[in-house]
Amino acid sequence: MSRKTPVPAHVPVRSLYGRVLGGLFLSAALLLPGDFSFVPGAAEGAAASSAKGSSTRAKAGSTKASAGRKSTAKKSVRKKATAKKRTTRGKRRARAPRNPNGVNARAALVIDARTGEILFDKNSGTQMPIASLTKLMTAMVLIESKPDFSRRVMVTREDLAGSGRTQLRNGEVVTMRDLLHLALLSSDNAATKALVRNSDLAPEEFLARMNRKAQVMGLHQTRFVEFTGLSEQNVSTATEYAQILKLAGNEPLIQHVSTLPDYTFRGSKGNHHIVNTNRLCRYGVFDVRGGKTGFINEAGYCLATWVSTRTRDVISVVLGAPSNSARFAETRRLIDRWSVAPVAKGAS
Fold first, then answer.
1. Of 79, 124, 230, 298, which sits 20 to 30 A from 159 (CA to CA)?
2. Distances (CA, A) of 78 to 85, 183, 269
3. pLDDT attached to residue 70
């Protein structure tokens, strides 16, 4: 009996084809250059990388958008803050009290120069520094000593020391008359010192006469400690200074000098041109009969003026105005109102 050889099991055709194709594909992959591979997980890495890139771009876009929103928010906050400040400033301006009399100076007085009748009064009895208004009393005492105004005198370092602005120079020779113009027109302190030094009076006697004259006039709140007004201890009131101006304005030389718009003279070191610090004398709006300006920090801006109008003469004294322009503006408003308006009972 013969033994039969076993017949191998039938292999499906699809399986053979798959093995052949898989072998060919693997051979091709091994032969190709580059990083191409079928390493398990490679696709997931690429996908993860792609996803990471997308995520980064998304985050960048989100950050940029967030920054944009923050910037817009900041701008909005700034705009609101600015608007609030403007509104606050507007409210402050709206709430700021207005002076019904239109006078912001610490003290002011307007009187009829002929009758002495008070037309306007604000703190006129309050004693305060008068700065260079002092120089009118200095000029009156000087004139009473009868100096030779044509005499030529020399300016010294002592005159210039601590005197502020001046056109004078050390060793310059000028006349006493020129010094008087400098003192009253441009309120020159060095010129005022030189006038007193070259008077026939010792400085102590000169100062004593200034105070004695104030006492004789009944000005008990007026006091002088020096000749220029640089000291805040030179004090008076609006009421009392109006009397000083009235007396000084009746002195022809003071009236002439203090009301000139400007003045030119020649000293030994050159020509000098000065202008009146009282603007009312320069503009020609009023017929000014006398006046003086003054300023130091403690006194504020001061102005005393005697004006003659068609209806009445008035003397205006403004002490402690807040600015240079304010003292003139307030003086002019007071003169415009009270030089023509009828006097009202109880007016203030």
1. 298
2. 10, 55, 61
3. 52
pLDDT in tens, 85-136: 554 444 443 343 445 457 899 999 999 999 999 999 999 999 999 999 999 9
> Which has more pLDDT, 41 or 23?
23
CA distance 259 to 183: 13
Q: By the 8 A CB rule, do 171 and 141 touch?
A: no
Average pLDDT across the chain, whole number? 80
177: three-class secondary structure by DSSP: helix
CB 268 within 8 A of CB 178: no
What are the tokens at 140?
Answer: 């009156």
Distances (CA, A) of 118 to 102, 304, 315: 17, 15, 10
Left, alpha or beta for 180 (phi > 0: left; psi -120 to 50: alpha)?
alpha
Q: Please give the Cα distance from 290 to 243 (Å, whole number).
A: 12
Q: Which of 86, 127, 321 is nearest to 222 (CA)?
A: 127
- Residue 137 burial (10 A CB sphere; 0-12, 13-18, 19+): buried
The pTM of this model reads 0.70
Active site residues: 132, 135, 187
Cβ-in-10-Å burial (0-12, 13-18, 19+) of 110 comes to buried
Q: What is the CATH number of domain 107-338?
A: 3.40.710.10
Q: Which residues contact 312 (CB under 8 A, 6 or more apart)?
A: 112, 113, 114, 339, 340
Q: With 0-12 CB in 10 A as exposed, 13-18 as middle and 19+ as buried, what is 33?
A: exposed
What b/e sequence results for 69-85 when a residue is b if at least 16 CB atoms lie within 10 Å of its CB, and e otherwise?
eeeeeeeeeeeeeeeee
